[in-house]
């Protein structure tokens, strides 16, 4: 690690914000643990594994578990890049302000536009999936109407909890973290130790999923097993102005989210594979929802019911974390005057110190999409297909902007620094991101053009509408907030830090 950037550690949170051109508007009540809990419940390995377990096995067989290692390593590199950025820019909004300060207004507008829609769609999808668990918990028959009602209930419960303030949000996130750890690591370990029905060598057995072709093709097709899991860590930075000592704590929280999330996913995915009573049926695609039967056969009816309670808790926490992250991004976007209705969206409540109006939007738009899904269930797959790719695109826009600034001479000035290794990590993180996006845009093989290319079509629609608005309304001209100032800010932080150190050394008592 380089020692020079560490000088900025002496800047207090208020002074750091002042250097960046902002004033304190929020309560800094989030600890490192609470910030980590927010990112972890957003990442939610329980949701990710449950959603893609059957698909991953039917496409790539048991070896698809290795995507958790591959993607986890790649996203850890991305989190290191983000860590240096947020350490210099510990401000609300994450992706948007990072892209703005590293590149410029129009570039940041597009990054935020893609990311906002990806987050909103993700909120909708998680609430939809969670409604199934909630219905099972109370033995409510699954119909389009009950799914809609339960989805709206999850969205409203999360909104109500978010409205009570940052402390409640942090507590619920920590409860969700505990639920996630019990639901994925606890259950996974139990299945591995006491309910194992398959040998460990099964993870090297393709079980014939490749057919007459190459297994490489099948393995690449199962990449979503990992790609869907490892995002959410950036949410730690979305609430930066509500975290004490964010320049130090948020980089740690992001890395903890990746590492603990990866271990949790491995235990969960591996446990389900080893405990599956009829693994060939899952791999062949005959059993498309195998986890309930695995839990029923291993935990019994009572144990399965307890797991449902844990799962519902995790889903509520996940929706809450998503709403919180999306609202802070909207607030950051609006604070700089870059979005329609920016004055309304940038308001902060005087008592609870939350962006209430932005929270309302982060709940209302997913609710409206859920109503559309009620009338046409097929829309859910269409509107969610681009979400993962959209998030990866937004991530890599920040990674690319960071690398561009490094080539221009930027040396990150936050207390978290990779030193000389930073540029190497940045290059490898970008290469990984491009590879991940290439995997995500691969077409299906149904023969239906719209179905096979839905991921790219969805992204093209979002990019197209964003570009039309950007070059017609020109929101970038309405905003005068700082942009493209990474080098200047780094120099200002170092100058301020040196002055602070001089004062500290002069005022310190002589031993």
UniProtKB/TrEMBL annotation:
<dbReference type="GO" id="GO:0022857">
    <property type="term" value="F:transmembrane transporter activity"/>
</dbReference>
<feature type="transmembrane region" description="Helical">
    <location>
        <begin position="381"/>
        <end position="403"/>
    </location>
</feature>
<feature type="transmembrane region" description="Helical">
    <location>
        <begin position="142"/>
        <end position="163"/>
    </location>
</feature>
<feature type="transmembrane region" description="Helical">
    <location>
        <begin position="423"/>
        <end position="441"/>
    </location>
</feature>
<dbReference type="Pfam" id="PF13520">
    <property type="entry name" value="AA_permease_2"/>
</dbReference>
<dbReference type="InterPro" id="IPR002293">
    <property type="entry name" value="AA/rel_permease1"/>
</dbReference>
<feature type="transmembrane region" description="Helical">
    <location>
        <begin position="253"/>
        <end position="275"/>
    </location>
</feature>
<feature type="transmembrane region" description="Helical">
    <location>
        <begin position="213"/>
        <end position="233"/>
    </location>
</feature>
<feature type="transmembrane region" description="Helical">
    <location>
        <begin position="354"/>
        <end position="375"/>
    </location>
</feature>
<feature type="transmembrane region" description="Helical">
    <location>
        <begin position="453"/>
        <end position="471"/>
    </location>
</feature>
<keyword id="KW-1133">Transmembrane helix</keyword>
<protein>
    <submittedName>
        <fullName>Amino acid permease</fullName>
    </submittedName>
</protein>
<keyword id="KW-0472">Membrane</keyword>
<feature type="transmembrane region" description="Helical">
    <location>
        <begin position="107"/>
        <end position="130"/>
    </location>
</feature>
<dbReference type="GO" id="GO:0016020">
    <property type="term" value="C:membrane"/>
</dbReference>
<keyword id="KW-0813">Transport</keyword>
<feature type="transmembrane region" description="Helical">
    <location>
        <begin position="306"/>
        <end position="333"/>
    </location>
</feature>
<feature type="transmembrane region" description="Helical">
    <location>
        <begin position="32"/>
        <end position="53"/>
    </location>
</feature>
<feature type="transmembrane region" description="Helical">
    <location>
        <begin position="65"/>
        <end position="86"/>
    </location>
</feature>
<feature type="transmembrane region" description="Helical">
    <location>
        <begin position="175"/>
        <end position="193"/>
    </location>
</feature>
<keyword id="KW-0812">Transmembrane</keyword>
